[in-house]
Amino acid sequence: MTGKVLVILLALCAISAGLSMYYLQVYGYYFEVEPRPGQDVTLVPQGGDRAEVIAYEGFQAIDADSSPIRYRACFTTPLDLDALSAAYTPVENPEPLTAPAWFDCYDTGQIDEALKSGRARAYLGAKNVHYGVDRIVAVTEDGRGYAWHVLNNCGQKAYDGTVIGEECPPRPEN
Predict the structure, then answer these.
(1) Are 96 and 145 in contact (CB under 8 A)?
(2) Is residue 171 part of a domain?
């Protein structure tokens, strides 16, 4: 009898731990980003370092304090792809990161397919929004836009333990 109770107790603990981990990964750490009109969507001009705000509306985003690359955003813009491509820094081979299923406006599969087919183009949204993390902004032909964060070269080196080198700025102290 004691063995059965112990097995049931262990099974309940395992199920509880699994459900807790699932909740924390999918819902727990995320929060909605408060829109800042006229500041939320930026792109880096070709040959420039400072990001510029572009025209947008319908902005919604999520982020998490647990990781600098959990940021995801959606918006619409009246700007066309040719005008954006002529003025802003393109990103080669962008790979959109997944978002939780409950963040409906951001569908990683559709974004990736649009980028690969040429119906969307990706641009550098901002450099070093966090140490070693850049913001990528993708815009489709019909004006839907998406943003996410990726590790840049300095970030990849910093987080995998490789010596950072002189080309990267010093890592901020915590």
Answers:
(1) no
(2) no
DSSP state of 97: P
Query: Each residue of 68-93: pLDDT tens digit?
Result: 899 999 999 999 999 999 999 999 99
Averaged over 87-112, what is the pLDDT? 94
Phi-psi region of 94 (alpha: psi -120 to 50; beta: other; left: phi over 0): beta
Q: How does pLDDT run across 15-46, given as a tens digit for each residue?
A: 999 988 888 777 778 899 999 988 899 999 99
Query: Among 25, 22, 121, which residue's Cα sits nearest to residue 70?
Result: 25
Are 23 and 57 part of one and the same domain? no
Question: Which residue's structure tokens are 């978002």?
Answer: 99
